[in-house]
Amino acid sequence: MASVRLVAPEPRIVPWLGSQLVQPDQVVDVPDDQVAAYTCQPAVWELVGEPKKAPTISAARRGSKED
Predict the structure, then answer these.
(1) CA angle (43 as vertex; 42, 46 as ends), nearest 5
(2) What is the full DSSP assignment across 16-63?
(3) So where are the chain's domains?
(4) pLDDT tens-digit series, residues 12-34
């Protein structure tokens, strides 16, 4: 999950969050795969918590022990 803050001056109803009413300066968590839909509106949303990066196959292999 990533965190975004509503920077717009008025509350917004956010359908992707179950039609939740978000107040100005309120921080909400959004699914990682939907972050771009918020960050592409810089006059409305500000990213405050980076999405978690899924581990890559090579990163997962680095943790494995080879014989």
Answers:
(1) 50
(2) GGTSEEE-TT-EEEE-GGGHHHHHT-TTTEEEEEPPPPPPPHHHHHHT
(3) 2-62
(4) 999 988 999 999 999 999 999 99
